Amino acid sequence: MNETATIPATPETGEGPRPKIAARNVNVHYGDKHALKDVSVDVPEKGVMAFIGPSGCGKSTFLRCINRMNDTIPICRVTGDLRMDGRDIYEPGLDPVLLRARVGMVFQKPNPFPKSIYENVAYGPRLHGLARDRTELDEIVLGALRKASLFDEVKDRLKDSGTSLSGGQQQRLCIARAIAVRPEVILMDEPCSALDPIATAKIEELIDELRSNFTIVIVTHSMQQAARVSQRTAFFHLGKLIEDGVTDQIFMNPRQELTRNYITGRFG
Amino acid sequence: MNNHTVKAFDEELGVLSRKINEMGGIAEAMLVESIDALVKGDKTRAEAVVQRDKALDALQQEIEDLAVVFIAKRQPMANDLRAVMGTVRIAGDIERIGDLFKNIGKRVRAMDSTMIGTRTLSGIQNMARMVQEQLKLVLDSFSQNRPDLAREVWLRDGEIDALHNSLFRELLTYMMEDPRAITYCAHLLFIAKNVERVGDHATNIAETVHLVETGEPLAGPRPKAEDTHYTKGLRPE
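Above: the input entities. Below: the structure tokens describing the complete assembly.
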């Protein structure tokens, strides 16, 4: 759990700059169950990295390690080295709440608070004291709604309940809520699996716009989606990271047979 | 390789590759028949070659249509996607091969058969035999999923080019010796060029097969006709 400077880049990355997130030999146990086995991977800064793999392969578990969501599960034990900007995410003194302000999360099912659209987005900035007064808060909220491509659709009804929106709008509201606290990383756990194709396309377009400012890690069961939105892809299977690399290479010419069997639909 | 979870996936890929094999069979037959028609001055046979080309055009169209539907419906990835794109490309190459043999058929139809029997034909026959081997080998590499055979084809194309160059010089000599042979020899020049072009398409197919099977393009040095002694005298100094 030391020597930040000497963490080797995984051989196939080689992009040069330090990764935003670097995992080395990360293991996760849920009680007796060994859910994640020796995962080592780099998530480069600014861009989209997709995690794919069959259900129960550990991709969501790994995602939840990045903002320490697994802390909420008592039987969960995380070991290994997991760093953001070179700093240990599991460092004893580190406040998970502050970590989660830097690492936002969007879940599978849109989960807006039962509050107004405005309050949904204002909640985080207020909690973290990001705005000095109402004007500043307005700026943050409206800016986040704009960035989440939702503003035009809700600008006349900011006081309406967040739950009154359609599924796709709710998910974009959740993304607005996540980016309102100005995180550096956004984790997305199957953000489109509950949405129709049009809402999905809007989210994908949004992800494409956000990637120039944020590091995005997305877990998805749709391989086409992974291929469309990400620049790098990692394939998990039975708790292990089988292969990671540039998305085009993973989908056109994967190195590992397991990866190939999975993405071509040859899993028995 | 394992089968797909969705059985229709494998079945549809199978249909595509069977259709390529069918096209390959027709192209091979057209080669034999067009050269035979040339050697024997058989205009009926030449006409049959011309007619046969239609079957290739139809098959190519069918393969393209099937591939488009397949991609839309199955959204293939990795080697599957390469396989589908590969069949489309190979179908295109075989269709062009068919056009080249059709062209030979048309020439034989139009040629003055009284000239038949000159020794020049043995050169074209030799070349055709080499191209036939190449075509057979490359079609085998496709149907047996053998990138090693594809590489072999790719490496051997230089021999055909070399033979074509020597044939070119030979025909030039005949034309200089006897101006009455010019029309006939000019036809032969075009026919030789057509046969040589078939060899190029066989090489294209080899490149496609290799890419489909390995994900990597064929690379590395290969002997070029320019390097052979046949062409030395042809190049401007």
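Note for the figure: Residues 21 and 84 of chain A are 4 Å apart (CA to CA).
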